[in-house]
Amino acid sequence: MASDGSQEFKLVSPTITNEARLPRHYTDEGQGAKKNISPPLEWYNLPEGTKTLAIVVEDIDAPEPNEPLVPWTHWVVVNIPPTVKGLPEGFSGKEEEMGGEYSKMKEGNNDWKQPGWRGPRLPNHGHRLQFKLYALDDELHLGNKVTKEKTLDAIEGHVLGESTLMAIY
């Protein structure tokens, strides 16, 4: 419960414990078809008035020690209807195929300049991968090319709540 006694807006994953290691099949270091699979996410207790949700996933320890920290974007998903309670494992790239409420969502470009999820592949481990979920009071109109930067600019003044899940890679 939140400090005011209400239920806390929460982002969780059935396969990732907060601040625990990211399973290998969600990374670029998995094997064969068992790599770069987008992880399942679930959320609870949306703030009142939520009209849409957005997710931004970043390596907040990028690039490397001795370099300035500039978060590296792994995934952006916008216009998630509040009626959707989560994203299933392997969702990335399948929103049209899944249809229904999922077809209203839009995946943005990651920092590889490709739409959808792309897991980490790092020369050294121990980086923190931050999954941040935003509850918004309006739908986002970002045009054809969705990016983290456009998303963060557009949500300014529209955030009703945010929740974070951290994985270690």
Descriptive tags:
2 helices, PEBP, PEBP-like_sf, six-stranded mixed β-sheet, YbhB_YbcL/LppC-like, mainly beta, 169 residues, 9 strands
Secondary structure layout plus pairing:
Layout: E1 10-12, E2 20-21, E3 41-44, E4 52-59, E5 72-80, E6 86-87, H1 95-98, E7 106-107, E8 128-136, H2 148-155, E9 159-168
Parallel strand pairs: 2-9
Antiparallel strand pairs: 1-3, 3-6, 4-5, 4-8, 5-7, 8-9
Question: Can you describe this structure?
Answer:
The chain is mainly beta. It has a single domain (10-168), classed as PEBP-like (Phosphatidylethanolamine-binding Protein), CATH 3.90.280. Helix content is 7%, strand content 29%. It contains two helices and nine strands; from the N terminus they run ββββββαββαβ. It has helices at residues 95-98, 148-155, and strands spanning 10-12, 20-21, 41-44, 52-59, 72-80, 86-87, 106-107, 128-136, 159-168. It has a six-stranded mixed β-sheet, covered by helices on one side. A three-stranded antiparallel β-sheet has the order 1-3-6, with no helix packed on it. The longest helix has 8 residues, at 148-155. The chain is globular, with a radius of gyration of 16 Å. The model has no long low-confidence stretch (mean pLDDT 91).
Task: Summarize, please.
This protein is mainly beta and 169 residues long.
How many individual domains?
1
Q: How many E strands?
A: 9
Distance between the termini: 29 Å
Mean pLDDT across every amino acid position: 91
